[in-house]
Amino acid sequence: MAASDPLPHGALKGVKVLDLSRILAGPTCTQLLGDLGATVIKVENPKTGGDDTRQWGPPYVLDTEGQQSDLSAYFMAANRNKRSVSIDIATEDGQQEIRRLAAEADILIENFKPGGLAKYGLDYASLKDDLPGLIYCSISGYGQTGPNSHKPGYDIMAQGFGGIMSLTGEPDGQPMKAGVGIADVMCGMYACIGILSALHHRSKTGEGQQIDLALVDAQIAWLINEGVAYLNTGQIPKRRGNEHPSIMPYGVYETEDGHVILAVGNDSQFRRFMEFLKLEGLAEDPRFSTNPARLQNRDALNGILIPAVQRFATRVVLDAMEVRKVPAGPVQTLDNLFATDQVAARQMAIGMETAAGPVKLLGNPLNFSRTPVTYRHPPPRCGEGTEEILGSVSPFGTS
Q1: Could you say which of 184, 299, 319, 335 is catalytic?
Q2: Who has the most CB within 10 Å: 59, 127, 346, 369?
Q3: What top-level class would CATH report for the domain 259-330?
């Protein structure tokens, strides 16, 4: 193999992950690790039918007899490149199996309530002395400490408590959550970053450690500019719908036949935009000639721009902005999105064959020149690998 050829496996080949998490934050993290080459064993409770999201549908994959399987779209979104084992950790046999798997694992990830695994002897404090190299990632709603640590955490609660809902939605409407569980997904990404950092530390020192990650903390961290602006001014940000607090014009504008996104980031772009609208005088108007001025006179400017943009079809605006090098884009429905050449070129929709039948999944956005992501295992049926994995002397033997 030439030095420039991609390797036939991911960068994390040989890394072993024991996944005790469920729903979205933890599974997002472990799917990313699996895509990068790690071997992931997902533990599911046989008494409950496994991961909660197996029942979060429709839609579900129908099996060969046309019956509803336990592969919901929600579950499949975060559970490829894993093998599933059914283990009841409330039993002594189940606890022994978890300890056996943990002894071979590099990483254990769980999202029980703080203290929830202590009664089974499976918390970090109970395992760390016997397994000093284990990286143990604990995800919970509010973290292992603090007055709210006992409370459960779901995505919408994190978005509400963490402030992002107060910034999202129309100015006179309800606070609005994002259309997908973005607090969970971002928490899973922070977890992945933390785990990779802990792996690097262990490679130098041999030391494992616990990672304490809260859904709400992750949500607060990605308030980014709005959070920092409040901390430094004490001014509570307002909901502005699709508009930007610091850039104008920036948002979604109605066209003759739909909507267009405009992101006019500087004064020269604004001048070129005004030339297209045949409103060149606005670029010289002191109310609108600079971005700070446009922000101060936002309502007055929108009063002119909104009807002006409505005169044009979406494609006309998009083509004109591309020629003038003014950032603009469409608001696509998913049927349009997944029909684009861009999605095909970037392989952002993939096919896999599950035990229940063929499915389509979202691709991983990471592209490596030497260690590409791989799609080795489709989302598993609950307990699909129990006999093979638990009956093996080396449960993590198959990547």
Answers
A1: 184
A2: 127
A3: alpha beta
